[in-house]
Amino acid sequence: MPVLGTRFADELPEMGVSWRAAEPPAPELLVLNEPLAVELGLDPGWLRSADGVRFLSGVNLPDGAKPVAQGYAGHQFGGYSPRLGDGRALLLGEIGARDLHLKGSGRTPFARGGDGLAAVGPMMREYLVSESMHALGIPTTRSLAVIGTGKTIVRENLAPGAILVRIAASHLRVGSFQFARASGDVALLRRLAEHAAARHYPGAGPLELLRGVIEAQAELVGRWMLTGFVHGVMNTDNMTISGETIDYGPCAFLDVFDPATVFSSIDEGGRYAYGNQPAIAQWNLARLAESLLPLLDDDQDKAIEKATAELARFRPRYVAVTLDGFRAKLGLGPVGDAVVTALTEDLLALLKAEETDYTSFFRKLAAGEEPEAFSAWAKRWRALEPDTAAMNDVNPVYIPRNHLVEEALADLSALPALLEAVTDPFTERPGRERFAAPAPSGFGVYRTFCGT
Ligand code: AMP
Ligand code: MG
Question: Measured from the CB, is residue 266 less than 6 Å from ligand 1?
Answer without folding.
Answer: no
